[in-house]
């Protein structure tokens, strides 16, 4: 990109010299040169804006830990593995794995981010997400604000700050309805049979 910018800047400079001197050029030729100079200036401006928007080695992309793990396993043939992962995500009828959820979310700019990781990346601190089944009545109570807690078997090491992705489950299958809640409180006293009570609040869509 640097070479292209330098090349076009030199052409602009050379055209400028010709135009100023009007080296035996006709009026039409000079007018044409002026138009070409303006077009080249626009190209240079666009390239410089693109260059400034791209991450550099000092401005590495930040990704969740699960993305970093996938990248390290698949970077040898990255383009092919990105394609296969997208295909799996789109073809799956089951709830997506966490990486597939990230991959199919446009705001994450997944393909651009994965390619930029070749120039280095940092792992951001992101909350752990737990995919959990929930009955329709309980899901509705959480949405309405009536239910502000969850009691679960603590077989996942739940912690304050975790995200519960509550997926509606009825008659042996997922309905497709789901919500995310943030774990805001866990009491420090143990419950019988390794259960845990968690204070929760609904995660608004525009805050994700």
Summarize the structure.
The chain is an alpha/beta fold and 208 residues long.
Characterise the protein shown here.
- By secondary structure, the chain is an alpha/beta fold.
- The chain has 3 domains: 2-53; 61-123, no CATH class; 129-207, Roll (Archaeosine Trna-guanine Transglycosylase, Chain: A, domain 4), CATH 2.30.130.
- The protein has 7 helices and 7 strands; from the N terminus they run ααβααααββαββββ.
- It has helices at 2-21, 27-53, 65-74, 78-91, 98-103, 110-116, 136-144, and strands at 61-63, 121-123, 129-134, 149-153, 163-170, 173-185, 195-202.
- The strands form 2 sheets. It has a 5-stranded mixed sheet. A two-stranded parallel sheet has the order 1-2.
- It is elongated.
Describe the protein's topology:
Layout lengths: L1 H20 L5 H27 L7 E3 L1 H10 L3 H14 L6 H6 L6 H7 L4 E3 L5 E6 L1 H9 L4 E5 L9 E8 L2 E13 L9 E8 L6
Parallel strand pairs: 1-2, 3-5
Antiparallel strand pairs: 4-7, 5-6, 6-7
CATH superfamily of the largest domain: Hypothetical protein
| Helix-strand topology string | HHEHHHHEEHEEEE
Total strands: 7
- Using the alpha-carbon principal axes, give the shape: elongated
Beta content:
15-25%
Note the main attributes of this structure.
single chain; 208 residues; alpha/beta; Archaeosine Trna-guanine Transglycosylase, Chain: A, domain 4; 3 domains; 5-stranded mixed beta sheet; two-stranded parallel sheet; elongated
């Amino acid at each position: 990109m640097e070479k292209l910018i330098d090349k076009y800047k030199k052409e602009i400079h050379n055209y400028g010299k010709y135009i100023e001197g009007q080296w035996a050029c006709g009026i039409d030729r000079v007018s044409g040169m002026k138009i070409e100079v303006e077009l080249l200036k626009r190209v240079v401006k666009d390239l410089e804006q693109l260059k400034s928007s791209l991450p550099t080695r000092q401005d590495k992309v930040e990704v969740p830990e699960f993305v970093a793990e996938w990248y390290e396993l698949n970077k040898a043939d990255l383009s092919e593995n990105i394609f296969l992962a997208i295909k799996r995500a789109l073809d799956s009828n089951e709830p997506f794995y966490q990486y597939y959820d990230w991959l199919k979310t446009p705001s994450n700019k997944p393909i651009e981010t994965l390619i930029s990781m070749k120039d280095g990346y940092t792992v951001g601190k992101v909350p752990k997400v737990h995919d959990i089944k929930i009955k329709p009545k309980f899901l509705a109570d959480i949405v309405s604000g009536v239910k502000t807690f969850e009691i679960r078997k603590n077989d996942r090491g739940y912690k304050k700050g975790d995200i519960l992705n509550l997926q509606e489950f009825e008659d042996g299958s997922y309905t497709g309805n789901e919500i995310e809640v943030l774990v805001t409180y866990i009491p420090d006293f143990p419950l019988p049979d390794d259960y845990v009570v968690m204070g929760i609040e609904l995660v608004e869509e525009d805050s994700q």
